[in-house]
Each structure stands twice: as C-alpha cells, then as structure tokens.
Amino acid sequence: MVSPPAVDHMVVLTHPSARSFCRSVARRWQARARRHNQVCEVRDLYHDCFDPVLKANEQPGKPGFSPAST
C-alpha cells in the first residue's frame, strides 16, 4: 500500500493582538496538523514587523539590493 503524500501547511496570521481569536485558531490548526505528523508553520506578520511597502532598495537590480533572509 502506498503512503499518502506528506502535507505541509503554512498559516499566515495578520492580527495585532496576541490574544486574538485568529491566533487561537492558527495555533489549534498547527497543533492538530502536528498530531497527524504534518508540518505546519505559522507566520505572524505583526510579530515579524512585516512592512508591505516595497522600497526602492528592495527591487532586484537596484543599488543596495540584497535578498531578504527568511
């Protein structure tokens, strides 16, 4: 019998409150996925200080460009 393919999950969280319903759902989803031996990463854009504005030095080929680390 062939095993099902591995499943990876990426949850992107975008709520400023550390006690939000959204965060609770994200953490529960992560816990459930891990119980099923699946990979689940939660990325919290507020915690990571994500800035959605693309700056000139972040454009490939522009002076000062360097790829962001993940």
Automatic annotation (TrEMBL):
Coiled coil: none annotated. It comes from the Bacteria. Residues 10-57 form the Flavodoxin-like fold domain. Gene3D superfamilies: 3.40.50.360. This is Putative NADPH-quinone reductase. It comes from Novosphingobium hassiacum.
